[in-house]
Design goal:
The structure is a single chain. By secondary structure, the protein is an all-alpha fold. The protein folds into two domains: about 130 residues, no CATH class; about 160 residues, no CATH class. The chain has 14 helices and no strands. α2 crosses α8, α8 packs antiparallel against α11 and α9 runs antiparallel to α10.
Length: about 350
């Protein structure tokens, strides 16, 4: 082929190579999606730790260089104290729940004509779950050991990220043209503020829902009310789907007792969720981050289908981060449209 032919074919070859590179990159991202989700979880935890460290440095005589160490120690001591004071009782109730729940599921299944309901439910959950990053590496699936390994990885990575966030921010921003560095730094700051506000509001909501659920189940007479309340509070981290899943164990135990207990349990779960949805969450969101309910629901569905249970768990903070970046970088700075950005008023 002569020189003119090479010049004519040049643009086509470049487009072909770019297309292949984009497809290859997308495929690689899909392969390491579990790692990327764990990385986002580490970033989220690092943002929370750094925010707590900033509060310690601002309101105590502890210097800023030691604030992160103090924050990590305080969080560790809090969980250690909680486990010391309540861990034995809650752990015993959770153990009792894990031992009696299969028989309770079988009893409910027999009432509606399904034999061996607990085994069938375990098979369905196992078939629909996606293994985690470290779980795939060692072939454990999402066993307790695999979850603990992933959690340890997230915690250690979060501490490193929070210890020197500027290092990692600069490294990420250098992938972009110099003219874009300042706007990306600003977007990172606002995104971090939005995530801190969202998590603070969600933590208060989870605590209130857990306490109310435990009190209600204790009053109704269900077994292990503390464990059932803890389940209700933790699952409330995921809106819409979480409260339903959190009420299932309590309802299963209530159905094994009598009809009146089952009805009281349903009424209590509905009342608590109505109180959370119409009173607690709107009041907290006035000072936190308010997300459109439809956007949250679709985020849970999309990330759940794409990444499994880990995607469901991280769907809302992912949606918060994406919403902030789209509103600030695209709608406001690129299109020039006026829009409010979550977390911007709290920016330094």
């Amino acid at each position: 082929m002569d020189a003119d032919g090479l010049r004519q074919e040049g643009p086509y070859v470049r487009r072909l190579l770019i297309t292949v590179a984009v497809i290859s990159l997308a495929y690689f991202v899909w392969l390491v999606s579990g790692v990327l989700l764990l990385a986002f979880a580490a970033v989220l935890l690092a943002v929370l730790l750094s925010g707590f460290a900033r509060l310690i440095a601002e309101y105590t005589p502890i210097p800023e260089t030691w604030a992160l160490t103090a924050a990590t120690i305080v969080v560790a001591l809090f969980f250690a104290t909680f486990l010391t004071l309540f861990g034995t009782r809650i752990g015993g109730q959770i153990s009792q729940l894990s031992e009696t729940l299969p028989s309770a599921i079988d009893a409910v299944g027999n009432r509606i004509g399904i034999s061996n309901a607990s085994e069938k439910l375990q098979e369905a959950v196992a078939a629909g779950s996606r293994p985690g990053m470290l779980s795939r590496a060692v072939g454990l699936g999402y066993t307790i050991l695999g979850v603990l390994a992933d959690l340890a990885l997230v915690v250690v990575a979060a501490i490193y990220l929070a210890a020197d966030p500027r290092l990692y921010r600069r490294g990420a921003v250098k992938l972009l043209p110099p003219s874009q560095h300042q706007r990306i730094f600003e977007a990172m700051d606002v995104t971090g503020n939005a995530l801190r506000l969202w998590f603070g509001g969600q933590l208060v909501t989870m605590t209130l829902v857990g306490m109310l659920s435990a009190l209600a189940y204790w009053w109704i007479g269900l077994p292990s009310p503390l464990a059932l309340g803890l389940i209700a509070g933790v699952t409330n981290f995921v809106p819409f789907l979480g409260p339903i899943l959190g009420a299932v164990p309590a309802l299963i135990f209530a159905m094994t007792m009598d009809l009146a207990t089952a009805l009281w349990t349903v009424a209590a779960a509905l009342a608590i969720q109505q109180l959370e949805g119409n009173v607690i969450t709107p009041f907290i969101q006035q000072r936190a981050v308010s997300m459109p309910p439809a956007l949250v629901l679709f985020a849970i569905l999309v990330f759940g289908v794409a990444f499994g249970w880990l995607g469901v768990f991280l769907a809302v903070p992912l949606a918060v981060a994406i919403t902030v970046l789209v509103k600030k970088l695209w709608i406001r700075q690129t299109l020039g449209e006026h829009t409010t950005v979550p977390g911007e008023n709290a920016a330094d």
